[in-house]
Amino acid sequence: MALPFSYSWKNVLARPQNTVLTALAIALWAFLFLFFNGFIAGLNGAFVNSGSPANMFVLRANSTSEINSSVTREQASILAALPEVARAQDGSPLLVGECNVVVNLPRVGSDKGANVTIRGASEKSFDPSLGRSVRIVEGRKFNPASSELVVSRNISKRYQNATVGSTLHFQGHDWKVVGVFDGGGTAFDSEMWGDRDDVMALFKREVYSSVTFKMANPAGSAPLIKKIAADQRLQLQATTERAYYDAQQQGSDWMKYIFYFLTFVFSFSMFFASANAIFAAVQARTREIGTLRAIGFSGGNVLMVFVFEAIVLGLFGGLLGTIPAALLIPRLSTGTTSFTNGGFSDLTFNFKVTPELIGLSLALCCLISLIGGLLPSMRAARMGITSALREV
Hints:
Radius of gyration: 29 Å
Number of strands: 12
Helix content: 40-55%
Shape: elongated
Order of helices and strands: HHEHEEEEHEEEHEHEHHHHEEHH
Low-confidence stretches: none
Mean pLDDT: 82
Number of helices: 12
């Protein structure tokens, strides 16, 4: 005689209080697991998703970032004439020179300031052909020679006077915020953009910080990098845009390592705490297991049904924590001080919950329940019927 698996469903529903308490313990683990890993995924994505492998990124020779780099207009013109630079339909090169500076601005709800990157851009900086995931979500783009700015959505939330229609004051000059953009989870989400000539004039810069262009043949990036480095007229160094941002990620590694450690400690402790909750729930039903065996069900059959019940409970708890986490956590954004672009600046990013993280969370919830339910079920199934019936 075999004990039907429907027995598990009925028991889950017949013990609402125990079911809810055990499921909540697992749900808490799932929610916090996604919270910590969502932070790490968002921080990684701020750089890993930045830049296109089809773009070449050019700095002054031996420079490590845009802040300490300089590219003259003459050098930019030489680059624009290279046959390896892709062309738009009108024949113009898909190339843009930009100026990168840092200002200190006060955060919302605080008088303390933080460094924010301002990118002196042009209309071509928004060109989708360059592979940038930047789109205006509120207001409009800045006009040339107008002291106007567009700010990322994260910057708009975190800094004073950074909403559309507000005025920011720095370098003894007023700048009107006319738009908010979404940087697509890239490093641009930590920036403000203004007209390149306005920014260069205000900060007394006569040169660009960098030049970015789309390659006509991305597969030929290695020979092109060598060609630019060998050109004595340029004295510049080049790398793919993706490789540049990957290198910049090293400035935030310390924060990732802290969260990796916290995630490990939390996951380890909560894993066994949740497994213990399942263990206690099954252990309390040793007499029930003895009764089922006395009726005639085999120990192996009873073991399988109780382990199945534990896994079902784990999956239920996992869904209870994962669903609200998947809906709420991606709405969170935060920032950290990071040594990027050659100096300390505020790096802002959104938490990210990926399908892979959700699947891992649910799988671990089932594993927690399997570990917690297997041991007491095996003990009770192997116990003598009389001994099991005497358990309190």
